Every structure is written in C-alpha cells, then in structure tokens.
Amino acid sequence: MLAAAICLPVPLRRSFDYRVDAALAGRLRRGCRVRVPFGRRTLVGVVVGAPRELPEGADELRDIEAVLDDEPPIPAELLALCEWAADYYLHPLGEVLAAALPAALRRGAMPATAQTEGYALTAAGRAALETLPPRHRAQRSLLQALSTAPRSRADLVATAAVLRRALDAGWIEAADAPAATPASGTPTPTPEQAAALDRLAAGDAGFAVHLLEGVTGSGKTELYLRRIEAALAEGRQALLLAPEISLTPQLDARLRERFGDGVHRFHSTLTDRAREQVWLRARDGRARIVVGTRSAVWLPFARLGLIVVDEEHDTSYKQQDGFRYSARDVAILRAQRLDVPVLLGTATPSLESLHNARSGRYRHIRLQRRVHDTPPPQVRVLDVRGLPLDHGLSPPLLQAVDRHLDQGGQALLFLNRRGYAPVLLCHACGWNAPCTHCDAHLTLHRGRNRLICHHCGAQQAVPRHCPSCSATSLIAVGAGTERIEQALANRFPQYRVARFDSDRITSHEALERQLADIRDGRTQILVGTQILAKGHDFPGLSLVGIVSADQALYGTDFRAVERMGQLVTQVAGRAGRAGQPGEVWLQTHEPEHPLLQTLARDGYGALCDALLAERRDTGLPPYAHLALLRAEAREAGQALRFLQLVRPCFEAPDVTVYEPLPSGMERRAGLARAQLLLQSASRAALHRSLGAAVARLQQMPEARRLRWSVDVDPYDL
Ligand code: ADP
Ligand code: ZN
Ligand code: ZN
C-alpha cells in the first residue's frame, strides 16, 4: 500500500498518512495541496512526504479525496523554511503553513493568476540565447521569440512550465516589471556612506548579516535603496521588512520615487485578494521589490537576492500570539538558507544583534554622522520630585516648550500611554474602574467618553456616579496622550497641537495630513506615543520632552529599560534643525538612577554596555536562551496546576526549569494565565528539552483540557 504524509491545518504537531493509489502517486509532489477526510470534516492539506510503501498490515488508512495541484503552489524553499520554523518554534506545521499561504489557497481554491501582460528578455536571457545548447528547444524558441521585443502572454506558444523555468533562471521578466535602473534623483553618497557601501558590497558573494547602525538621518535608507538596486541589477528580488508600513509612508514614498510602480506593499490591512496578488507576483518573480510587515517574510519569492530589516530592534517583528515567531530571526535564517545577504538597519540595535555584531557573527557597519550634519541633541534629566505637575508636565518643561515655540521651533511630547488617564478613581470609596475580564484598570478616554480596557478591548460608558458608592467624586489619575494634548492646548492657545496615537491616527491619510501640517508649520506641538518614533522627518523640531522616563524603571519586564532607551533615542533623534542641536528633556522621579544617567550622559551605546553586563550576570539573553510554556484556562489555578504537573517533562541536562508562576497580569480576557520558564546556555539543549517534552504533552489527557503554547525566544516574561 502506498501512503503520503499530509500536513493539515490542525493544532497538532504531526502529519497524517493517507492512502494513494499508484496512478495518483506519480502526481503527488511535496507542496501540492490535497483534499482529505479528517474526522467528519474534509480538510485541505499539503503533501509533506512523497508517497512511500507502507508495510503489510499497517493501519487501515483513509483515501485522499482529491489532488488539487499538479505543480506545488508552495516553492520547495518556502516549504522547507516552514518546516524549519515549525521545528524551531515547536509549533504545528499546519499553522505555520497557514501563515505562508493566501486565504483562498488555504481553502482549496485554485491559485488566481497574477494578471500578466507579457514578458521581456533580460540581459541574462540574451546571453543564454548565445550559449544554450540546441537540445533546449523550448527555452531557445521562447528566448528567440522575445529577442526583438517584449511580447504578450497570448503571443507566446511556451507552456507555463517553460515560462516558469525561464523566469526562475532570470532569462525573462514580466514586461510590466519596473526598470531596474532608478528613475531619478540618486544622491552621491557621502564619504561615510561610500565606505559603508564598499563594506556591504564586499559581502555580496552570499549569506552575511550586516548590522547597519546609524543615527536617524545618517543615510541608512539611502543605503538600503542602493543595495536593492544592486540586487535588481542582478535580476534578483528584494524584500524590505518594516515594522508598520502604514505608519512609515516616507519609506514607501522613497522606494516609489526611486523604483517606480514596481514596489509592492504587503501588510495585514490589505484585502485577501490584494495579498494573494502580491503573493503570486512574488512567486512568479514579477514583484521585484516587496515592502512588507512581519508576514511578508513568508512570501514565496522566486529569486530573492536581498532582505532588508528596517528598525530591526522593533518589537512588532515578534508575533505575540498564536504562532509566536520573530520575523527578523526568520529573515536571517531564510537568507542563510538562500545564501543571500541580509541587512539589519537601526539607530538603536537590539542587545541580541549588538552582541552578535560584537562577537563577530554579524558584520557591524556604523554611520556616525547625520547627512545634513545636524549635531546630536543635548539630553538632560529633569528631576520633577516635589515640583507641581500640570497634568503630568513640570514648570521647567513647560517653560522650555514656551521658549522653543517662541523662537519658531516645534516641540514634541512623548508618552507611551494613550487615552486620557490610566485610572478613574472614586475619591470617596477607592473604586478604581477595574476591567471585569482582566487584572487591569480601564483607561479613561475622554474624547469618546468611554472606559476601555487596553488588554481585552472591553468598554463601557463613563459613569457619572461611582458604581460602588454612588459618590460623584470620580477623579482621573495619571496622564495619557489625550490629557497631555488638552493640557498643552489650554496652556498654549495660540499654537496648534496634534496628537499621534492609534486613537487619532486611524488611517494612512490621517497620518499624512498631520505630518503635512507639521512640515508646513501649521502645527507646532506634537504629542504622541511610539508612532512618533517611527522614522518620520520633522525638520522644524527643536525640543523633545519625554513625559515620563520612569515607567520602564519600575517595570518587571527584563527588556523594559532596553526598550525605553530605544524609544527615547529614536524620539530624540527627531530633534535638531539645520546645524542647530535639539534639546531633549527627560522627566523623572529617579534622577539618580544609574541607567537613566548613563543614557542621558553617554547615549544608547553606553546604556547597552551596562545592560549587556547585567544580562550576562543574570543569565538572560543574549547570554542565555529562553523559552516559555504558556498555559491559560477559565478556571483559576488550573493553568498553574497543569504547569506543575508537566514541569518534570522538561528536565534535561544543561537546562534550568523554573518553578511555574502566574503570568504578570494573571487574568486577561477572562482567562487565568501561567507560565513555565526554561533557560539554557545551549540552544541545542533547550531545543531537545522542548522537543521531548512537547511530544509527551501531546499525549497527555490533561493537556487537552486547556490551552497551552510554546514561546521560543519570548519577548517579555
Ligand atoms: P536614515 O534612514 O538613517 O534616517 P536617510 O537615508 O533617510 O537616513 O537620510 C536622511 C536624509 O538625508 C534624507 O532626507 C535623505 O534623502 C538624505 N540623504 C541621504 N543620503 C544622502 C546623500 N548622500 N546626499 C544627500 N542627501 C542624502
Ligand atoms: Zn465610590
Ligand atoms: Zn480587559
């Protein structure tokens, strides 16, 4: 009996054998989709093991109902990448593949065709025409047909397979693909950029990770464009990953300005159909450049030649639910498997990347100067202890705002907390607007007149009376961006204030409008969250105020200070104008805190040195590897008991298995959560422990009564 291994979209870490008859077996290739019965359902699965002979007496297997593809829609390289990721992240392959396939293909629909107008011969194709032996008749006649001019698909007699092979070889390209030569306006590199380009080009031969570290405005993006151009010139495709495309219109605009319409966007707010079109164009090689968020790392490129990860430190590269992967790390692995370079760009490298660069695993390239030669900003720590705070703003900071505006500058106030106030408190009885589903307070949103949970999304109207004691003495405690915006609008009525957070910036257009108002000087004061740290250019900005540098210092998350340092540095990097340094003020109640002092006095690099020393002493990444087993259940205590039960499964040489603990915020969206932390200096040892334990967990009846998942390289603990 012949059987094939099929991967199904179910949360199980295994494939399933189905019977195939000999006639079908010849058609079944790895990566083809099939329709199979599963329980009482019919599912679309993917062939992961070619048909093989099963021994006599093997279990009775069910039949494959239908084979959906003759050609695998998933290229072999991508399927292998998904298998690697499923193994590395201990996640079911079916769910990994779901991340890599367009929705319609997952449902079993036939792949749509990317509307192809026609094809043109490339320089490589012209060369191939000279050298290709006559026995390659089909290829030769295709190249011959295109040798005088591009032709439409309908005019060509070549089969799809012949076209695919010629595309894969880089001999032909879709006729509507962009010219590889930049349209216009390529600036001459500065000497520093030129030196960096030389080093980047030196690594051209194959896989290398380049950490391109340069302050905002030092010309990193310009280098990305140059490297992309070089990849295109070789007939390859380029992928540029960005944290959030809709928040970085400038990046997109610059790519288009340089490369025209050949730039394809890929992100989660596109429709399924639009995503599928980019997917198909990546696969047939017509999408020469894709700029995308996290999930674009799974696109089926035909001949990828370069991956750029912009803002490599950004936390949004890590998916925080379901399949918890890091797109940055997958990008590096994919580049390694493809033997192509990857370029990590940032002004504030993650400690992991910095460590890899210092230990020689990555090539470290630095840009120290800003292109337009703006000196770095002056950073000062502002001790607000004992000062009267006006909605969170101290008199010295307000005076600084006044002075900068008066001199024609612009001021930016940064606070990583949206809404009006994080707590609504009853002064009479102490009621404090808890969320009924989470261990958290509801945030007061004045504009919408709602109390909203930032963890589960639950909302309710703002009560006039305390729901507990009926008193009317409800007070807003603490400040969010909405409150700072109002305070500044009241204080400086002659100037315009713009707020940047996800409540206000709901579309690309809204963002563009607000940015234009700032560029044109109609808006003088900016208030916002991390959206303001995302690579926008504010040429008139002279003052940055960090409303609270303390949030991170009290946090329990081991990455909190690293992240604060990144945000402060990123926001501070926006300050300064044409030759004049900007000013950055950090409000704090802990002015003596050594890490804060280090950041203010010596900058992000020095902060990293201090943090790396701490991480080394405490055995945290990048000096050790971590994994979490997370569990959640409706019933209080169930998740924790489960973790206590399974803890021994993880015991292994060279792996520390900690006591299970309730998660930081134990209850979220009605579920009680707990986690088990594993730590090891050896990635291999950690992986062995996880692999063995997960295999056992899958057999345990207790494990079916709650939700559990593995988080490899967790971002927060
Ligand atoms: P980064 O990505 O490091 O913030 P950019 O590449 O965006 O830096 O460069 C900052 C600004 O300088 C941009 O407006 C860019 O167009 C401009 N720029 C970059 N390189 C050059 C150059 N070699 N000559 C002139 N202008 C440049
Ligand atoms: Zn009350
Ligand atoms: Zn909630």
UniProtKB/TrEMBL annotation:
<keyword id="KW-0413">Isomerase</keyword>
<keyword id="KW-0235">DNA replication</keyword>
<dbReference type="GO" id="GO:1990077">
    <property type="term" value="C:primosome complex"/>
</dbReference>
<feature type="binding site">
    <location>
        <position position="469"/>
    </location>
    <ligand>
        <name>Zn(2+) 1</name>
    </ligand>
</feature>
<dbReference type="GO" id="GO:0006302">
    <property type="term" value="P:double-strand break repair"/>
</dbReference>
<keyword id="KW-0862">Zinc</keyword>
<keyword id="KW-0347">Helicase</keyword>
<dbReference type="GO" id="GO:0016887">
    <property type="term" value="F:ATP hydrolysis activity"/>
</dbReference>
<dbReference type="GO" id="GO:0006310">
    <property type="term" value="P:DNA recombination"/>
</dbReference>
<feature type="domain" description="Helicase ATP-binding">
    <location>
        <begin position="201"/>
        <end position="367"/>
    </location>
</feature>
<dbReference type="Pfam" id="PF17764">
    <property type="entry name" value="PriA_3primeBD"/>
</dbReference>
<comment type="function">
    <text>Initiates the restart of stalled replication forks, which reloads the replicative helicase on sites other than the origin of replication. Recognizes and binds to abandoned replication forks and remodels them to uncover a helicase loading site. Promotes assembly of the primosome at these replication forks.</text>
</comment>
<keyword id="KW-0479">Metal-binding</keyword>
<feature type="binding site">
    <location>
        <position position="426"/>
    </location>
    <ligand>
        <name>Zn(2+) 1</name>
    </ligand>
</feature>
<feature type="binding site">
    <location>
        <position position="429"/>
    </location>
    <ligand>
        <name>Zn(2+) 1</name>
    </ligand>
</feature>
<dbReference type="Pfam" id="PF00270">
    <property type="entry name" value="DEAD"/>
</dbReference>
<feature type="domain" description="Helicase C-terminal">
    <location>
        <begin position="461"/>
        <end position="619"/>
    </location>
</feature>
<dbReference type="GO" id="GO:0005524">
    <property type="term" value="F:ATP binding"/>
</dbReference>
<dbReference type="InterPro" id="IPR005259">
    <property type="entry name" value="PriA"/>
</dbReference>
<dbReference type="InterPro" id="IPR040498">
    <property type="entry name" value="PriA_CRR"/>
</dbReference>
<feature type="binding site">
    <location>
        <position position="435"/>
    </location>
    <ligand>
        <name>Zn(2+) 2</name>
    </ligand>
</feature>
<dbReference type="GO" id="GO:0043138">
    <property type="term" value="F:3'-5' DNA helicase activity"/>
</dbReference>
<comment type="similarity">
    <text>Belongs to the helicase family. PriA subfamily.</text>
</comment>
<dbReference type="InterPro" id="IPR042115">
    <property type="entry name" value="PriA_3primeBD_sf"/>
</dbReference>
<comment type="subunit">
    <text>Component of the replication restart primosome.</text>
</comment>
<dbReference type="InterPro" id="IPR041236">
    <property type="entry name" value="PriA_C"/>
</dbReference>
<dbReference type="InterPro" id="IPR027417">
    <property type="entry name" value="P-loop_NTPase"/>
</dbReference>
<dbReference type="InterPro" id="IPR014001">
    <property type="entry name" value="Helicase_ATP-bd"/>
</dbReference>
<feature type="binding site">
    <location>
        <position position="453"/>
    </location>
    <ligand>
        <name>Zn(2+) 2</name>
    </ligand>
</feature>
<dbReference type="GO" id="GO:0003677">
    <property type="term" value="F:DNA binding"/>
</dbReference>
<keyword id="KW-0547">Nucleotide-binding</keyword>
<keyword id="KW-0639">Primosome</keyword>
<dbReference type="InterPro" id="IPR001650">
    <property type="entry name" value="Helicase_C-like"/>
</dbReference>
<dbReference type="GO" id="GO:0006269">
    <property type="term" value="P:DNA replication, synthesis of primer"/>
</dbReference>
<dbReference type="GO" id="GO:0008270">
    <property type="term" value="F:zinc ion binding"/>
</dbReference>
<protein>
    <recommendedName>
        <fullName>Replication restart protein PriA</fullName>
        <ecNumber>5.6.2.4</ecNumber>
    </recommendedName>
</protein>
<dbReference type="GO" id="GO:0006270">
    <property type="term" value="P:DNA replication initiation"/>
</dbReference>
<feature type="binding site">
    <location>
        <position position="438"/>
    </location>
    <ligand>
        <name>Zn(2+) 2</name>
    </ligand>
</feature>
<dbReference type="Pfam" id="PF00271">
    <property type="entry name" value="Helicase_C"/>
</dbReference>
<feature type="binding site">
    <location>
        <position position="456"/>
    </location>
    <ligand>
        <name>Zn(2+) 2</name>
    </ligand>
</feature>
<keyword id="KW-0067">ATP-binding</keyword>
<keyword id="KW-0378">Hydrolase</keyword>
